Amino acid sequence: MKRILNCLASDFTTMNGKDLKASIEAAEGRTMIAEIVCTATPLYPGLTNAEYAAAFGADMILLNMFDVNAPRIMGIEDVPDENLIRKLKELLGRPVGINLEPVDVHALPAETLQKLPTGRILTADSLKRAKELGVDFICLTGNPQTGVTNNEIMQAITTAKTICDDDCMIIAGKTTL
């Protein structure tokens, strides 16, 4: 397996999640991921913010606020929903992933929570849809005020691995203050 640092855009077109993980492991900690709020206006017209991150050395791009049921990446226009992730991967020549949030509906919130669209919440359907859209990896995480708990992330890892198998790499994490 090639180190991710040595991969060409064409190498990523044949990798599945298991291959991507091996490629990252082969780089021995020298892999940089950039998280992009894909609903934010691009810094400059004609390019996506993901393209800027890739140009500055990001090896992988993680799309925050991506809704699998209403796909949108600011800076990419006139591309059918089904091809949006694939188009971004073509522009970047890098693996592209999305955040899905394993909301814990049983947890007692310490604050008023945002109501997330179903396309951003980790469910069996959203995982299947992410695979259909062509994501390379899925990050199980929690944005502020979403009701995601560490326990729910732990359970979501099993669900995601079962549904995604080796097709998508699964990563997870959440910071607490």
Question: Could you explain the architecture of this structure?
Answer:
The structure is a single chain. The protein has helices spanning 9-12, 17-26, 49-55, 84-92, 124-133, 150-164; strands at residues 33-37, 60-64, 96-100, 137-140, 169-172. It is globular. Strands 1-2-3-4-5 form a five-stranded parallel β-sheet. It contains six helices and five strands, in the order H-H-E-H-E-H-E-H-E-H-E. The model has no long low-confidence stretch (mean pLDDT 92). The protein is α/β, with parallel strands linked by helices and 177 residues long.
Detail the poorly predicted runs.
none
* Beta strands, count: 5
Instruction: Please outline the major beta sheet.
Output: 5 strands, parallel
Fraction in helix: 25-40%
How widely separated are the two ends? 38 Å
Category by helix and strand content: alpha/beta
- Helical run tally: 6
Write the layout of secondary structure elements.
Layout lengths: L8 H4 L4 H10 L6 E5 L11 H7 L4 E5 L19 H9 L3 E5 L23 H10 L3 E4 L9 H15 L4 E4 L5
Parallel strand pairs: 1-2, 2-3, 3-4, 4-5
Helix pairs in contact: 5-6
Short description:
This protein has about 180 residues and is an alpha/beta fold. About 30% of the residues lie in helices and about 15% in strands. It has a five-stranded parallel β-sheet.
